[in-house]
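Self-study notes.
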Amino acid sequence: MESILILSEKLPHVRSIDVVNDLGFKKSSVSVAMKLLREKGLIEASPEGYLTLTKEGLKIAESVYERHVILSKCLIALGVSEDVAREDACRIEHDLSEESFQALKNHLAFAEKQHKK
Protein backbone atom coordinates (compact mmCIF):
# COMPACT_ATOMS: atom_id res chain seq x y z
CA MET A 1 0.00 0.00 0.00
CA GLU A 2 2.89 2.32 0.77
CA SER A 3 4.27 1.70 -2.71
CA ILE A 4 0.89 2.48 -4.30
CA LEU A 5 0.73 5.71 -2.27
CA ILE A 6 4.20 6.85 -3.35
CA LEU A 7 3.72 5.80 -6.97
CA SER A 8 0.36 7.56 -7.16
CA GLU A 9 2.16 10.84 -6.46
CA LYS A 10 4.51 10.23 -9.40
CA LEU A 11 2.34 8.45 -11.97
CA PRO A 12 -1.06 9.25 -13.46
CA HIS A 13 -2.13 5.61 -12.89
CA VAL A 14 -0.58 2.85 -10.79
CA ARG A 15 -0.62 -0.73 -12.04
CA SER A 16 0.63 -3.94 -10.46
CA ILE A 17 3.67 -3.90 -12.77
CA ASP A 18 4.60 -0.49 -11.36
CA VAL A 19 4.55 -1.98 -7.85
CA VAL A 20 6.65 -4.92 -9.10
CA ASN A 21 9.23 -2.53 -10.54
CA ASP A 22 9.19 -0.32 -7.46
CA LEU A 23 9.64 -3.10 -4.92
CA GLY A 24 11.61 -5.57 -7.00
CA PHE A 25 9.31 -8.47 -6.09
CA LYS A 26 8.07 -11.19 -8.42
CA LYS A 27 4.90 -10.48 -10.38
CA SER A 28 3.22 -13.47 -8.77
CA SER A 29 3.99 -12.21 -5.26
CA VAL A 30 2.59 -8.77 -6.02
CA SER A 31 -0.47 -10.32 -7.67
CA VAL A 32 -1.23 -12.35 -4.53
CA ALA A 33 -0.68 -9.29 -2.32
CA MET A 34 -2.97 -7.15 -4.47
CA LYS A 35 -5.68 -9.80 -4.31
CA LEU A 36 -5.47 -9.88 -0.52
CA LEU A 37 -5.59 -6.09 -0.32
CA ARG A 38 -8.66 -6.03 -2.59
CA GLU A 39 -10.36 -8.70 -0.47
CA LYS A 40 -9.67 -6.64 2.66
CA GLY A 41 -11.15 -3.57 1.00
CA LEU A 42 -7.89 -1.63 1.13
CA ILE A 43 -7.41 -1.17 -2.62
CA GLU A 44 -9.58 -1.17 -5.71
CA ALA A 45 -8.58 -2.22 -9.22
CA SER A 46 -10.25 -0.75 -12.28
CA PRO A 47 -11.06 -2.90 -15.33
CA GLU A 48 -7.93 -1.40 -16.92
CA GLY A 49 -5.83 -2.64 -14.00
CA TYR A 50 -5.30 0.73 -12.31
CA LEU A 51 -4.86 0.45 -8.55
CA THR A 52 -6.22 2.96 -6.08
CA LEU A 53 -6.27 2.97 -2.32
CA THR A 54 -9.63 3.01 -0.59
CA LYS A 55 -10.22 5.50 2.22
CA GLU A 56 -9.12 2.91 4.79
CA GLY A 57 -6.19 1.82 2.62
CA LEU A 58 -5.03 5.42 2.24
CA LYS A 59 -5.21 5.94 6.00
CA ILE A 60 -3.04 2.88 6.65
CA ALA A 61 -0.60 3.67 3.83
CA GLU A 62 -0.11 7.25 5.07
CA SER A 63 0.52 5.97 8.60
CA VAL A 64 3.10 3.43 7.42
CA TYR A 65 4.76 6.01 5.18
CA GLU A 66 4.97 8.49 8.05
CA ARG A 67 6.69 5.83 10.15
CA HIS A 68 9.11 5.13 7.31
CA VAL A 69 10.01 8.82 6.91
CA ILE A 70 10.43 9.45 10.64
CA LEU A 71 12.49 6.31 11.21
CA SER A 72 14.71 7.06 8.21
CA LYS A 73 15.33 10.61 9.47
CA CYS A 74 16.16 9.35 12.97
CA LEU A 75 18.63 6.79 11.66
CA ILE A 76 20.26 9.30 9.31
CA ALA A 77 20.59 11.75 12.21
CA LEU A 78 22.44 9.02 14.09
CA GLY A 79 24.94 8.72 11.24
CA VAL A 80 23.47 5.80 9.30
CA SER A 81 23.81 6.11 5.52
CA GLU A 82 20.62 7.02 3.65
CA ASP A 83 20.38 3.68 1.82
CA VAL A 84 20.81 1.62 4.98
CA ALA A 85 18.49 3.94 6.94
CA ARG A 86 15.71 3.47 4.35
CA GLU A 87 16.16 -0.32 4.30
CA ASP A 88 16.19 -0.55 8.09
CA ALA A 89 13.17 1.77 8.37
CA CYS A 90 11.24 -0.66 6.14
CA ARG A 91 12.05 -3.48 8.54
CA ILE A 92 11.30 -1.53 11.70
CA GLU A 93 8.17 0.43 10.67
CA HIS A 94 5.78 -2.52 10.90
CA ASP A 95 6.92 -3.86 14.27
CA LEU A 96 7.60 -0.71 16.27
CA SER A 97 5.07 0.03 19.01
CA GLU A 98 3.00 3.20 18.77
CA GLU A 99 4.50 4.41 22.06
CA SER A 100 8.08 4.06 20.80
CA PHE A 101 7.19 5.60 17.45
CA GLN A 102 5.60 8.65 19.09
CA ALA A 103 8.66 9.06 21.35
CA LEU A 104 10.99 8.97 18.32
CA LYS A 105 8.73 11.35 16.40
CA ASN A 106 8.66 13.81 19.32
CA HIS A 107 12.42 13.55 19.80
CA LEU A 108 13.07 14.19 16.11
CA ALA A 109 10.74 17.22 16.12
CA PHE A 110 12.54 18.59 19.19
CA ALA A 111 15.98 17.99 17.65
CA GLU A 112 14.96 19.64 14.38
CA LYS A 113 13.56 22.63 16.29
CA GLN A 114 16.80 22.98 18.26
CA HIS A 115 18.87 22.72 15.10
CA LYS A 116 16.98 25.64 13.51
CA LYS A 117 17.83 27.96 16.43
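Second protein, same conventions, sequence then structure:
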Amino acid sequence: MSNTEELDALVGEWLTVPDLMQALGAELRDVHRLLDQRQIVAVKRGENKAASVPAAFVADGRIVDALTGTITVLSDAGYSDREMIVWLFTPDETLPGTPMQALREGRKTEIRRRAQALAW
Protein backbone atom coordinates (compact mmCIF):
# COMPACT_ATOMS: atom_id res chain seq x y z
CA MET A 1 0.00 0.00 0.00
CA SER A 2 1.37 3.44 -0.94
CA ASN A 3 1.74 6.32 1.50
CA THR A 4 -1.24 8.02 -0.18
CA GLU A 5 -3.39 4.92 0.22
CA GLU A 6 -2.37 4.61 3.87
CA LEU A 7 -3.23 8.25 4.50
CA ASP A 8 -6.55 7.88 2.68
CA ALA A 9 -7.38 4.82 4.77
CA LEU A 10 -6.76 6.81 7.97
CA VAL A 11 -8.52 10.02 6.97
CA GLY A 12 -11.34 8.85 4.74
CA GLU A 13 -12.96 12.00 3.36
CA TRP A 14 -10.95 14.94 2.03
CA LEU A 15 -11.78 18.50 1.03
CA THR A 16 -9.94 20.35 -1.73
CA VAL A 17 -9.57 24.12 -1.38
CA PRO A 18 -12.81 24.80 -3.34
CA ASP A 19 -14.63 22.21 -1.19
CA LEU A 20 -13.23 23.83 1.95
CA MET A 21 -14.38 27.25 0.76
CA GLN A 22 -17.89 25.88 0.37
CA ALA A 23 -17.86 24.01 3.70
CA LEU A 24 -16.77 27.16 5.55
CA GLY A 25 -18.73 29.64 3.46
CA ALA A 26 -15.41 31.44 2.96
CA GLU A 27 -13.61 33.26 0.19
CA LEU A 28 -10.47 31.84 -1.41
CA ARG A 29 -8.25 34.42 0.33
CA ASP A 30 -9.70 33.38 3.70
CA VAL A 31 -8.92 29.70 3.07
CA HIS A 32 -5.40 30.58 1.95
CA ARG A 33 -4.98 32.63 5.13
CA LEU A 34 -6.06 29.62 7.24
CA LEU A 35 -3.42 27.52 5.50
CA ASP A 36 -0.70 30.20 5.56
CA GLN A 37 -1.25 30.89 9.26
CA ARG A 38 -1.29 27.14 9.95
CA GLN A 39 -4.74 27.20 11.50
CA ILE A 40 -5.27 24.07 9.41
CA VAL A 41 -2.86 21.87 7.49
CA ALA A 42 -3.11 20.28 4.06
CA VAL A 43 -1.32 17.70 1.96
CA LYS A 44 -1.00 17.46 -1.80
CA ARG A 45 -3.13 14.63 -3.18
CA GLY A 46 -4.48 13.15 -6.38
CA GLU A 47 -3.41 13.47 -9.97
CA ASN A 48 -3.29 17.26 -9.81
CA LYS A 49 -1.51 17.31 -6.45
CA ALA A 50 -4.27 19.55 -5.14
CA ALA A 51 -3.99 20.81 -1.57
CA SER A 52 -6.50 18.84 0.50
CA VAL A 53 -7.53 18.86 4.13
CA PRO A 54 -9.35 16.14 6.05
CA ALA A 55 -13.10 16.80 6.01
CA ALA A 56 -13.14 16.06 9.76
CA PHE A 57 -11.31 19.36 10.32
CA VAL A 58 -14.65 21.11 9.68
CA ALA A 59 -17.76 20.86 11.85
CA ASP A 60 -20.89 22.98 11.56
CA GLY A 61 -19.31 25.29 8.98
CA ARG A 62 -16.26 26.08 11.14
CA ILE A 63 -12.79 24.71 11.80
CA VAL A 64 -13.01 22.32 14.76
CA ASP A 65 -12.33 24.12 18.03
CA ALA A 66 -8.93 23.30 19.49
CA LEU A 67 -7.53 22.05 16.16
CA THR A 68 -5.41 25.14 15.53
CA GLY A 69 -3.76 25.02 18.96
CA THR A 70 -3.09 21.31 18.57
CA ILE A 71 -1.48 21.95 15.17
CA THR A 72 0.75 24.56 16.84
CA VAL A 73 1.84 22.08 19.52
CA LEU A 74 2.56 19.36 16.94
CA SER A 75 4.45 21.85 14.77
CA ASP A 76 6.56 22.85 17.77
CA ALA A 77 7.29 19.14 18.24
CA GLY A 78 8.75 19.07 14.71
CA TYR A 79 5.89 17.31 12.94
CA SER A 80 5.35 17.92 9.22
CA ASP A 81 1.82 18.59 7.97
CA ARG A 82 1.52 15.00 6.78
CA GLU A 83 2.83 13.63 10.10
CA MET A 84 0.30 15.78 11.97
CA ILE A 85 -2.56 14.39 9.92
CA VAL A 86 -1.32 10.82 10.46
CA TRP A 87 -1.07 11.42 14.24
CA LEU A 88 -4.51 13.05 14.42
CA PHE A 89 -6.18 10.18 12.55
CA THR A 90 -4.33 7.15 13.91
CA PRO A 91 -6.57 5.15 16.25
CA ASP A 92 -5.40 5.02 19.86
CA GLU A 93 -7.06 2.43 22.06
CA THR A 94 -6.17 4.44 25.17
CA LEU A 95 -8.47 7.31 24.07
CA PRO A 96 -10.46 5.34 22.58
CA GLY A 97 -10.71 6.48 18.98
CA THR A 98 -8.41 8.96 17.30
CA PRO A 99 -7.03 12.26 18.55
CA MET A 100 -9.19 13.99 15.90
CA GLN A 101 -12.33 12.31 17.23
CA ALA A 102 -11.38 13.44 20.73
CA LEU A 103 -10.95 17.03 19.53
CA ARG A 104 -14.34 16.90 17.81
CA GLU A 105 -15.81 15.68 21.11
CA GLY A 106 -14.27 18.60 22.99
CA ARG A 107 -11.48 16.66 24.75
CA LYS A 108 -8.71 19.11 23.84
CA THR A 109 -6.85 19.05 27.17
CA GLU A 110 -6.03 15.35 26.90
CA ILE A 111 -5.01 15.63 23.24
CA ARG A 112 -2.83 18.69 23.84
CA ARG A 113 -1.12 16.93 26.75
CA ARG A 114 -0.36 13.95 24.50
CA ALA A 115 0.86 16.23 21.71
CA GLN A 116 3.14 18.14 24.11
CA ALA A 117 4.61 14.85 25.30
CA LEU A 118 5.73 14.14 21.72
CA ALA A 119 8.19 17.03 21.89
CA TRP A 120 10.16 15.35 24.69
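Instructor comment on the second fold: The first helix runs from residue 3 to 11.
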